Amino acid sequence: MAYVSLFLKSLGCLVVVAVLVLASMSMDARSQSAPNAMDGPSADPTKEISVTPDARDTEIAKRLQRILDASGWFNPVTVSVREGLVFLDGQTETDERKEWARQLALRTQDVVAVVNRVEVKPQVSWDLTPTWREVVHLSDQAQRFAPIAVVSLTILLVFWFLSRGVAALSRRLLRQRIPSPLLLQIVARTLAIPVFLIGLYLVLQVAGLTRLAVTVIGGTGLIGIVIGLAFREIAENALASLLLSVRNPFRTGDWIQVSGFQGIVQNLNMRTTVLLTLDGNHVQIPNALVFSSIITNFSSNPGRRAEFTVGIGYDASVMKAQDIIIAALRAHPAVLDDPEPAALVDELGPSTVNLRVQFWFDGRTYSIFKVRSALMRQVKRALQDAGVPMPDAAREVIFPKGLEVHGDAAHAPETRAVPTSSSAAGSGDTVVATSGEGDLVSEEPELKRQAAGAELPDAGENLLVSNSPKNEPS
């Protein structure tokens, strides 16, 4: 019986030890699954707090209260225990401290569960010591970085001046081979940009930013593509200005017509072409529109042709009218003999035979509007003096077989014959130029004088070549 009693006691001790081991393993598992972040040095207990076996609730509460008060992280804090259930009440500054208190209570002997009612309230501190410590740290870093900054700035300035020198030298050497100012400027800057990029690469290498240096050098093309897509219209106008300056369809001072506007070219910048119209107004046309439009350059060839239409009666001789018109044209000093003037039958109208009168003149010397006015006046006078009828289709109706009038002739209204020509009427129509037509000179010199004296705000650098002296009007 003694051996049986000893065996039963040993078996009971083994059961108790097994239960304690299993409880310890379950507590370790719960502690590993909970957050382990701490504010400051680690204070997480690694051993179970030993109370007395079968600890009473008051002993557990007193033990936990002393530990929490000793930590100084909780103010105030109250611990109460009922049937092994721990209730924590109080305030702390961080969530980590709140979790630490819960884990502490769970690791206490004979604690069944924990109700953590600790409130987290961050404390507002007016202590500037951490801020001042950070300022001192930044100051130390700035002092350590100062030599690198001085060397980097020196390298950047040296290569910036080198790039400007390369650009100036390129413009000087290529000025004879590249007549376009815009193309010359682009080529010079293209040659100068690699020099500056080398300096920037060296600066980043000195600063220890090797990867950033490689990224900057490799990403230059990508940046250009992104900028081109974002500013598509600006890029179109810039490219059009480059092509216009290379092709040179007109020069500064040329009289052109483009996109419905006619005037003297004043400026071609990176965005627009500026014209001084015949009305004295400045018009800015986008270069992309200029490049895609039909351009008429009146200054490229001094000889210009103009025309007008004259209507004569059906009973008049067309050949006689043509001879009269050609004689009147040849007699005017502004009309050129080569190419010769012409009077061509253009249309058989309702009441007139329309003749298209064409003539050539020097556009640099004479005004097209004034010369055409003088010639129309003289041709009309010459046809009237020769008795060539010029009926008005809107007010005159011709009856080739006559018109029979029936009724009392005594009551017919009195009619008067209208003379077809008169030597007194319009006697001044034979002069070369009237006071209204002035001296027939071209408006181009006056427009150029106004254009030279006009101010163009924000017009930018002119990318065109000026007119050569041989193209100026005499």
From TrEMBL:
Residues 31-50, 414-474 are annotated as: Disordered. The chain crosses the membrane at residues 145-162, 182-203, 209-231. InterPro entries: BON_dom, LSM_dom_sf, MS_channel_C, MscS_archaea/bacteria_type, MscS_beta-dom_sf, MscS_channel_2nd, MscS_channel_C_sf, MscS_channel_CS. Mechanosensitive channel that participates in the regulation of osmotic pressure changes within the cell, opening in response to stretch forces in the membrane lipid bilayer, without the need for other proteins. Contributes to normal resistance to hypoosmotic shock. Forms an ion channel of 1.0 nanosiemens conductance with a slight preference for anions. It is a multi-pass membrane protein. It comes from Seohaeicola saemankumensis. It is found in: Cell inner membrane; Cell membrane. The keyword Heme does not apply. Residues 464-474 have a biased composition (Polar residues). Belongs to the MscS (TC 1.A.23) family. Keywords: Cell inner membrane, Cell membrane, Ion channel, Ion transport, Membrane, Transmembrane, Transmembrane helix, Transport. Pfam families: BON, MS_channel_2nd, MS_channel_3rd. This is Small-conductance mechanosensitive channel. The keyword Acyltransferase does not apply. Homoheptamer. Residues 56-122 form the BON domain.
